[in-house]
Amino acid sequence: MPIQPPHSDVIRASRVIGASVHVQGGDRFGRISDIVLNKLDDIIQFVIVARDGALTATDNFYSVHWSDLNFDEDVGGYVLPFDSDGLEKSLADSSVQQLIDEESSPTKIQV
User: Fold this and answer.
1) Which of 43, 71, 87, 107 is 20–30 Å from 9 (CA)?
2) In sequence order, which residues have a C-beta less than 8 Å from that of residue 26 and are 6 or more positions away?
3) pTM of this structure
4) DSSP states of the chain as a string?
């Protein structure tokens, strides 16, 4: 598949990773920690949002659908269509921590 020339519908992952994430009302929730790609379907499977101020590693990470994130120039980051309570209850995902642990394991190498 040929690579299309740059246009306004694409963005580099390096510009997304580290961007702030806010909930409805504009309160900052965290930042985009990583982007998980589906290698077989050429799509973004989900993004990993790291919660600001979380005390334990398992509470730090949330999987969020890319389509749920909307960039808002006024807040200077991405905004989710949820409030923080709804996000906490519905999106806390220990499988994200497992994915991070597996990827950082020095014994697991994929070529």
Assistant:
1) 87
2) 75, 79
3) 0.72
4) -PPPPP-TT---HHHHTT-EEE-TTS-EEEEEEEEEEETTTTEEEEEEEEETT-SSHHHHEEEE-GGG-EEETTTTEEE-SS-HHHHHHHHB-HHHHHHHHHHH-TT----
Q: Which strand ranges, in their side-by-side order, compose the sheet holding 20-22?
A: 61-64, 43-51, 28-38, 20-22, 77-79, 70-72
- Spatial separation of the C-alpha atoms in residues 63 and 34, rounded to whole Å: 10
Residue count of the chain = 111
Would you give per-residue pLDDT tens digits along the chain (111 residues)?
Answer: 555 555 578 888 999 999 999 998 889 999 999 998 988 988 898 898 888 875 555 557 788 889 999 999 999 999 999 887 767 665 555 566 666 666 654 443 343
CA-based nearest residue to 75, from 29, 13, 33, 20: 20
